[in-house]
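Renewal narrative, Specific Aim 1. Our central claim is that a sequence can be written position by position from structural information alone. The example that follows is taken directly from our test logs and has not been curated for this report. It begins with the structure tokens describing the chain, in the order in which they were read.
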């Protein structure tokens, strides 16, 4: 019995000494990052459908350029002359190609009246978005207005072109 009392006393003493040494402490953990200006661009095809050169009317269509930039990032949107311009780098001479050598002129515009060529600021074209757009973190879409003028009796075929949309940002 005496041994049990001593063991109980020893256990109580150990328990008391452990609670004396128990405690907590805290420290602040810093969390940091750097966000650089960035933009993502995507496009929707300007699909003219079937072109009838005998029609007296223009063949019009629209597409879009969509830009998503970090908030407060300023940017411009330029469209190049495409893969088949009549004059290298000249956005005023855009052409679609069918086969190896059949070309069909067309144009891309900034406005629904199709009066201002959307280009890259060279060859008399405008890059109208220069300094005017600011990212807000959401996708911002810009309509591209396309036109093929009537009376172009080109060879039958499927005509295509690739125009590069370039977003420059700071």
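The sequence written for that structure reads:
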């Amino acid at each position: 019995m005496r041994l049990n009392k001593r063991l109980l006393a020893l256990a109580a003493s150990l328990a008391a000494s452990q609670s004396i040494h128990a405690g907590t402490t805290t420290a602040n953990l810093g969390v940091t990052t750097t966000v650089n200006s960035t933009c993502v661009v995507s496009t929707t095809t300007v699909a003219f459908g079937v072109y009838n050169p005998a029609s007296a009317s223009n063949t019009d269509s629209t597409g879009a350029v969509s830009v998503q930039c970090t908030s407060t990032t300023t940017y411009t949107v330029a469209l190049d002359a495409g893969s088949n311009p009549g004059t290298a780098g000249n956005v005023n001479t855009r052409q679609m190609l069918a086969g190896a050598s059949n070309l069909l002129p067309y144009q891309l515009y900034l406005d629904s009246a199709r009066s201002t060529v959307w280009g890259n600021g060279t060859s008399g074209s405008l890059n109208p978005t220069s300094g005017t757009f600011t990212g807000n973190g959401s996708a911002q879409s810009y309509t591209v207005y396309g036109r093929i003028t009537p009376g172009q009796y080109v060879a039958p075929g499927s005509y295509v072109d690739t125009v590069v949309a370039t977003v420059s940002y700071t």
